């Protein structure tokens, strides 16, 4: 499923966090630049995502002992103890990729040559925007799981824990993400546009401790299609 997301705001406190701000005093000029770059990022960014759900086809350990979770209908395998734990008991897996587009990438490159302060602020805004985009895509997977009577945990990306970055090419291929979203990989497996996120979400027949505990604090809240029906993803 390929989707576009209407995102018209991002959390300023998240932008400050990505900037490394820890409460020091801030000039009104910097305040203005932060606001302006957040606005600019929202106007340039094109939040889009692609996701699919694959049934779990098997699990076990490779000859070298590396745990694996195999998915049906794709060569994508989830490797490592992090995935073994995250997908323990999962009957299906939502696989997702999102990006905010090449316009943001070009602006980051331009600012790196012209205005380093603006680059830092814009980069933080773009990271906040792509994580917000990932929230929206995750909400779609949670809702699709709900329709199948399944409960989701939360998204987990290659590079976290011991989930290998080498997962990226086959994950992107499984979603046809280059054609659908324009995401490519460098030789060192970094995504271009850099403001892109890939992740997997476990889907289970029973509610999980990590299933979004409350709508009030849920990152998917603004994008959730379950809640407006009077139900929740907790059943
Ligand atoms: S907003 Fe509520 S129902 Fe929707 S995904 Fe979050 S916790 Fe679940």
UniProtKB/TrEMBL annotation:
<dbReference type="GO" id="GO:0008705">
    <property type="term" value="F:methionine synthase activity"/>
</dbReference>
<dbReference type="Pfam" id="PF02965">
    <property type="entry name" value="Met_synt_B12"/>
</dbReference>
<dbReference type="InterPro" id="IPR037010">
    <property type="entry name" value="VitB12-dep_Met_synth_activ_sf"/>
</dbReference>
<dbReference type="InterPro" id="IPR004223">
    <property type="entry name" value="VitB12-dep_Met_synth_activ_dom"/>
</dbReference>
<feature type="domain" description="AdoMet activation">
    <location>
        <begin position="92"/>
        <end position="201"/>
    </location>
</feature>
<protein>
    <recommendedName>
        <fullName>AdoMet activation domain-containing protein</fullName>
    </recommendedName>
</protein>
